[in-house]
Amino acid sequence: MEFMITQGLFSKALSDVNRAVSSRTLLPILSGIKIVAEADRITLIGSNSDIIIERTISVTDEKVKIHKTGSVVVSAKYLADLVKKLPEQIHIKADNNQIHIQAGPISTRLNGFSADEYPSLPLIDGESIHIPAEELKDAVKTTVFATAKNETRPVLTGVNLTFAENSFTSVATDSQRLAFKKSDIRSSGEGNFVVPNSSIDELAKLVNHYSGMVEIQSAEGYIHFKTDEISLYSRLIAGHYPNTTALIPAEEKTTLVLCRETFIKGIDRACLFAGEWKNNNVTLSIYGDKLCISSGSSEMGNIQEYQEIKYIAGEQELRISVDGHFLLEALKTINDAEIKIKFFGPMKPIVIESSEGKSSYLHLISPVRSF
Fold this sequence. Notes:
Blueprint: E1 2-6, H1 7-18, E2 32-37, E3 41-47, E4 51-58, E5 64-68, E6 70-75, H2 76-84, E7 89-95, E8 98-103, E9 106-113, E10 129-132, H3 133-143, E11 158-164, E12 167-173, E13 177-184, E14 191-196, H4 197-206, E15 213-219, E16 222-226, E17 230-235, E18 254-259, H5 260-271, E19 281-287, E20 290-297, E21 301-308, E22 311-314, E23 319-323, H6 324-331, E24 338-343, E25 350-354, E26 361-365
Antiparallel strand pairs: 1-5, 1-7, 2-3, 2-6, 3-4, 4-17, 6-9, 7-8, 8-9, 10-15, 11-12, 11-14, 12-13, 13-26, 15-16, 16-17, 18-22, 18-24, 19-20, 19-23, 20-21, 24-25, 25-26
Helix pairs in contact: 1-2, 3-4, 5-6
C-alpha cells in the first residue's frame, strides 16, 4: 500500500473514525484503525463492536494520489495524534504490517496488525430508506436527551426511530419524561429500530455539517446510516419499545401560550435554587394573567418571578412542581418563538407542544413532589 495525502484531509478523516475506537477493547486489533487503499479511494474504519464508522476519501480529490493498493491496521491513538503534528503533505507506505509515514524531513514507522484479522463489516442487504440529513439531525436533537441514563430497562437507553410511508418518528423516554418528534418525508421505506443513545450522539456529530440525504438500512442486528463519505453502523437494542402514546394524558385542564426565550431564562434562574431538592424542583403557579416561576433552598434562599401569559384557556388556578433541569433540556431543543403548555392536574404530567397548532414535536414531563 502506498499513497500521498494532505495532512488536513487525513487528520479530519482519522478524527471521524477515531470516534468509534476504544482503548479498553478486549480485542487488541479494535484499538486500531483499518486503512484500505483501492484504485479509486482510501477507506478508514474504526470500531468498538457496538459502533463502526467508515470514512471514504475519493481519489477524485486532488489532495489524494494512490500509488499502490493494499491494507493495514494501525494504532488509532498513535496514528491520529502523530498526523495532527505533521506538516501538510504526507507520504504513506505499508508493508509487512508496518506503516511508514514521511512528511518532509520527518520519517516515522508504526507497527500494526494484519488487515485480514480485522472483523468484517455487517452484511447490509435490506431495503433502503432515505431521509434528509436536516430532518434526521433535528429529530435526534429533539429526543435523544430524554433517553434513560441507567441500564435498568435497556430498551429505554435508546431512541426509537420509526419509518412509515412518507413519515418519520423519533421517540425517547426514561419513564419520567418523553420527547417526541414527527417529520413528513418523501420515502416509501418502513422500519422500526431502537438505536443506543451513544450511537445517536455520534451520528449527530458526524452529519452536523452535512446537508444531503442519509441512506438507512438494517441487517444482522445493526442499523446502517450512510452519506456520501461516511457510514455509521450501530448495534440495535433488542426488545419491544413501550407504547408511549399511552403516557400522554387526555382532557387538559389549562392551556398556556408563553414566549419560549423568556420562559427558558426564568426556568434557568429558578434552577439555581433547585439543586438542594432531589428532583431539582421548580414550581409553576398561575396568578391572574401571570405565570409565577419559583424555587427555594432552605439554606441559600429562594427566587420568584412573574411572566406574562400570552394566552390562557381553562382553569386559572394552578400549582405544579416539575424537575427544572428536565424542563430546561426540553425547551432548549425547540426553535419556536412561542410554546404551548398543557396542564392536566397537579399530579399529572405537563405537555409542551407548538403554539402554531402543529404536532411535529411533543415533550412530556412528570410532576415531582414539592415536600
